[in-house]
Write a structure and sequence with these properties.
By secondary structure, the chain is α/β, with parallel strands linked by helices. It has two domains: 7-218, Rossmann fold (3-Layer(aba) Sandwich), CATH 3.40.50.300; 227-334, Alpha-Beta Plaits, CATH 3.30.70. It has eleven helices and 14 strands. It has helices spanning 47-54, 98-108, 114-123, 139-151, 169-184, 196-202, 220-226, 239-253, 274-283, 297-305, 331-334; strands spanning 7-18, 21-32, 36-40, 62-67, 70-71, 83-86, 157-161, 188-193, 205-210, 213-219, 228-233, 256-259, 264-267, 290-295. The protein has a six-stranded mixed β-sheet with strand order 6-7-8-3-9-10, sandwiched between helices. The structure holds adenosine-5'-triphosphate (ATP) and magnesium ion. Residues 18, 21, 23, 41, 43-49, 194 line the site of adenosine-5'-triphosphate.
Length: 335
């Protein structure tokens, strides 16, 4: 495969069909070594299918996969020794304790020192309940045990499908810390999630999929800097003049949205241009009563995946070409 040097995980043209449905439709992922990679996409986008192919649970219908620098083909499941995975609900022996389950797992693979099992139980916060039968565990406790199991062999690459599922806030924070710590040791963490906010604080690199295809991939910081927005509030009767005065900025940057009732305008320029926006308005004799700037991964996600904007009450009038016709209400900032 070309262009995959230095990648922990790469897929090229990956396809998987379920009947006539293309769950993966030529997916190209490039996951660098030593990062937390947030794999994002709406329901049915193909995240779990990707995880299943990567762990050999299902066979692809085309394309190639490279894991830790080597091709990963049918019959290569033994190569997953260096890979830890949590895909779907983890299965454990219900009548055994968490500790006994981890021991069983350890016995079936390469040697794992028993100290490691205790460390992992501690890491995922299950020490107190480690002797209880897993059948009596809550969903979040099973999920914690699943994360411990994925880490058992001290893998170089960790594949986690929606690992935050069922975790309480403390569990999510602990998991985030654990995954960041692993990346800082040079391990690669590939994690799927719906929780944009979660990914935003944890990932170095993000890949967004929709309908089995990659629609955007890159360092999170880069994606966010491209997704800047400056929102200003003006008197509702001045909205039209404000839009006119901001046109020169929008011409370069393509998009202004407005909420006429509330008087909010969203100008899609990088967040550090708030001053320019303000100056432009002042030049037209319009003074803002509110100004906010920031970046919005959620907006990017919705635009790229063709989703509907959250809220939906306000009417935004796009000037120029709205990206995929999506709009936000600005209500969230008005609150
Ligand atoms: N076993 C299966 N049989 C038939 N269709 C399937 C099967 N598994 C997945 N699909 C289909 O493949 C597509 C991708 O599903 P997948 O589970 O990979 O999505 P996902 O991104 O993980 O979604 P979610 O966010 O809901 O978990 C969907 O259209 C789904 O209906
Ligand atoms: Mg899924």
């Amino acid at each position: 495969m070309s262009g995959t040097a230095g990648l922990a995980l790469a897929t090229r043209g990956l396809r998987k069909n379920y009947g006539s449905r293309h769950a993966l439709d030529g997916l190209n992922l490039s996951v660098p070594m030593g990062v937390v990679y947030g794999f994002l996409g709406p329901n049915g986008a193909g995240k779990t299918t990707t995880m299943r192919v990567l762990t050999g649970l299902v066979h692809s219908d085309g394309g190639t996969v490279e894991v830790l620098g080597k091709p990963f083909k049918r019959g290569d499941r033994h190569r997953l020794f260096d890979v830890g995975a949590l895909v779907e609900s983890p299965t454990f022996y219900p009548y055994l304790s968490a500790r006994a389950n981890l021991r069983e797992l350890a016995a079936s693979g390469a040697h794992v020192p028993s100290k490691r099992i205790e460390e992992l139980l501690d890491l995922v916060g299950l020490c107190d309940r480690a002797n209880d039968k897993v059948q009596g565990y809550s969903m979040g406790m099973k999920q914690r045990l699943g994360i411990a199991a994925a880490l058992l062999s001290d893998p170089k690459l960790l594949l986690l499908d929606e690992p935050a599922n069922g975790l309480d806030p403390a569990g999510i924070v602990a998991m985030r810390d654990t995954l960041r710590a692993l990346a800082s040791q040079g391990k690669t963490v590939f994690i799927s999630s719906h929780l944009l906010a979660e990914v935003q604080v944890m990932a170095d690199v993000v890949g967004i999929v929709a309908a089995g295809k990659l629609v955007r991939e890159g360092p999170l910081k880069e994606l966010l800097s491209m997704q800047g927005v400056v929102k200003v509030r003006v008197r509702p009767n001045l909205v039209d003049s404000a839009i006119k005065s901001l046109q020169p900025l929008a011409a370069a940057d393509r998009l202004i949205e407005s909420d006429r009732e509330e008087g909010w305008l969203a100008v899609h320029v990088s967040a550090d241009r708030a001053e320019d926006v303000n100056q432009q308005l002042a030049g037209a004799g319009i003074f803002a009563s509110g100004l906010e700037s920031g970046t919005d991964l959620e907006m990017l996600f919705l635009e790229l995946t063709g989703g509907q904007a959250v809220g939906g009450e306000g009417t935004f009038v796009g000037l120029g070409a709205p990206a995929n016709g999506s709009a936000t209400t600005g209500k969230e900032t008005a609150a």
